[in-house]
What we know:
This protein has eleven helices and nine strands. The protein has helices at residues 18-27, 47-53, 67-71, 90-94, 112-122, 135-142, 152-160, 195-208, 216-224, 228-232, 247-259; strands spanning 14-15, 35-39, 56-60, 78-81, 101-106, 126-134, 161-169, 174-175, 182-189. Helix 7 packs across helix 11. The structure holds S-adenosylmethionine. Residues 10-15, 39-42, 45-46, 60-63, 84-86, 106, 108, 111 line the site of S-adenosylmethionine (SAM).
Amino acid sequence: MKNFNFxxxxxxxxxxxxxxxxxxxxxxxxxxxxxxxxxxxxxxALTIPLSxxxxxxxxxxxxxxxxxxxxxxxxxNVTFYFEDIxxxxxxxxxxxxxxxxKLVANLPYYITTPLIFKxxxxxxxxxxxTIMVQKEVGERIVAKVGDKSYGALSVSCSFFGExxxxxxxxxxxxxxxxxxxxxxxxxxISSKRSDTEKNKFFDLVKMAxxxxxKTLLNNLCEGLKLKKEKLLSLDFNLLRRAEQLDCQEFISLxxxxxxKGMM
Length: 263
Ligand code: SAM
């Protein structure tokens, strides 16, 4: 890593602890039948154990300077794309997988949240995510109603399955060392949702959390451009804030709004 110019703008905090890298593969419950998507291959520290464990790996890396290093690894079951994953159509990304696949990555911290939303919204083949994220983001992903970190990301993740923090990782294992600690989150996607259901759910959650201090009533009035009286006619307590509703209550609210043709 000596001569490489780390680019902070790409969230380049690399790993080189072999035991930790193997543990991440274990956290993802990988077998030789699995197809894996890695986002942010870096110098290949995680790509190598992934390629030894899984049947096939598709890895994305935005930094063209890493191209030669990665291609020189000569990993026979790995396909590299030197592209910005956020700019690539999710269905195109998924054309590389014959069926279900697992996302395993030490994610660049600056795209973690948009990336999770992108895959939750658009993916049709993703079966699980095992991702290294900043500790604070991990806490937001797994938070339940009443937790300090509970918010749109937590509700959205529980709409699709169950996420757990499976490993705490100190900042000292990264090169260069970031400012905060990290954790590995394992997220199993268990619920199949239709495109309409997904779109409506994300719209509702976005509206409900728009101004966290406002009641659902006020946020939904603004978001749905409806009169208060109309929303108050629903058999649902809208005088609470979004952070007081769990995922099931969001689903009930969505069903009521859809039944009444308000969404
Ligand atoms: N996997 C390597 C490791 O564990 O050592 C590197 C992890 S590092 C935290 C994140 C990597 O993601 C960096 O190599 C960075 O260049 C890459 N990256 C950042 N933004 C990206 C994007 N939008 N699309 C693809 N790769 C990206």
